[in-house]
Write a structure and sequence with these properties.
The chain is α/β, with parallel strands linked by helices. The protein is about 20% helix and about 25% strand.
């Protein structure tokens, strides 16, 4: 929806410097924004685009300098202010009405205002809170429970007895509650261990496409409130993920790991089993976490160590071949010097003047 800059400033809690009556209809990146769109700069590396941007206005922090003539929406947290502008001008995705109902068992409990699309299935004694949306192919197993306002995109699955809190979103092909990877090897054969536990996903969690959350062998696997996963993330059985964590794509966490609150794991981070990761830990992409990590640590590398040390190691490792060549040259020079020194020592020992 279109609105004036004055209206937008009021909606996002920003201070406007510029034409209050100018209309804007959308948001765009600083380098691509048009004359009826709002952009933002939160990262200093994008400040160079301010000079040539065509945006109607730009959302910036208090310290960011902007060119004369460019309307300015100043906010303490420009990235969040841009999020609020996106909400005001675009809003969240709306769900299309179902084309006929899916399959629901007569014993299932369906809350008011739920939308169940064709080929979605709600099994025996499952319960959906009010306002849930199940896209085609979504599956809710026996005795599973979904809170209010949950959204299951196409082919998302909630296995039997698993629990979703309120406003949980599962993107396409996400799976909650499949069997944990548990086998006992006996007599040369891998024997399956029954996975009798469940998964509990707390309020306001969002799981990206293709995420897989294993059920516990006993007890529960738990994802804390407000946590957000990107795509293709695997969480092992019996693991607990804290509140408001952020996991980037291809993270893999083994079983029986205890992850604290506000933990950030970069892309392709791997975590071995039976570890504790403290609150506010940050791990750089591709880190391999093989030991407990204290709260507020920043780690990286394989295996994961202090992030600054990992960066220094990575810089050194950029030219290992060159280092090896220089080391071999130094070794040859040392051997040459040793040989020359030995020859000199032998000559001095054999000198007639020295003997006299």
């Amino acid at each position: 929806m279109a609105m004036t800059l004055a209206q937008l400033a009021d909606r996002i809690g920003a201070v406007l410097s510029g034409d209050a009556a100018r209309l804007v209809a959308g948001c765009a990146s600083i380098e691509r924004a048009g004359p009826d769109e709002v952009a933002f700069v939160a990262n200093p590396k994008y400040a160079a685009f301010l000079r040539d941007t065509r945006a109607a206005a730009v959302i910036v922090g208090p310290r960011q300098v902007t060119p004369d003539g460019l309307a300015r929406l100043e906010a303490p947290d420009p990235y969040f202010a841009f999020r609020e502008a996106m909400m005001a001008l675009h809003g969240l995705r709306t769900h299309p009405p179902p084309m006929g109902g899916g399959t629901r068992h007569e014993t299932a409990s369906i809350g008011e205002g739920c939308e169940i699309h064709p080929h979605a299935v709600v099994e025996r004694h499952a319960a959906l809170g009010p306002g849930c949306v199940l896209y085609p192919g979504a599956y809710v197993g026996e005795h599973a429970r979904l809170g209010a306002g949950c959204v299951l995109y196409p082919n998302a699955v909630v296995y039997d007895r698993c629990v979703l809190g309120d406003r949980v979103t599962l993107h396409a092909n996400a799976v909650v509650g499949h069997d944990g990877f548990g086998y006992a090897t006996h007599g040369g054969v891998h024997h399956k261990i029954p996975q009798a536990g469940v998964v509990v996903v707390e309020d306001d969690v969002e799981l990206g496409a293709g995420c897989a959350i294993e059920r516990a062998a006993m007890g529960e696997t738990r994802i804390g409130a407000g946590t957000k996963f990107a795509d293709l993330i695997s969480i092992g059985h019996g693991t607990t993920i804290g509140r408001h964590c952020l996991f980037v794509s291809l993270v893999g966490v083994s079983g029986s790991v205890d992850v604290g609150d506000y933990v950030v794991l970069g892309g392709q981070v791997g975590v071995t089993g039976h570890l504790t990761i403290g609150d506010f830990v940050q791990a750089a992409g591709k880190a391999a976490i093989v030991d407990d990590v204290p709260p507020k640590s920043r780690v990286g590398g394989v295996p994961a160590i202090d992030l600054d040390a990992a960066k220094r190691n990575a810089l050194v490792g950029r030219d290992l071949y060159g280092m090896a060549r220089r080391l071999r040259a130094l070794e040859r020079e040392v051997e040459r010097l040793r040989a020359a020194s030995a020859r000199g020592s032998d000559g001095q020992a054999a000198s007639p003047e020295r003997s006299a």
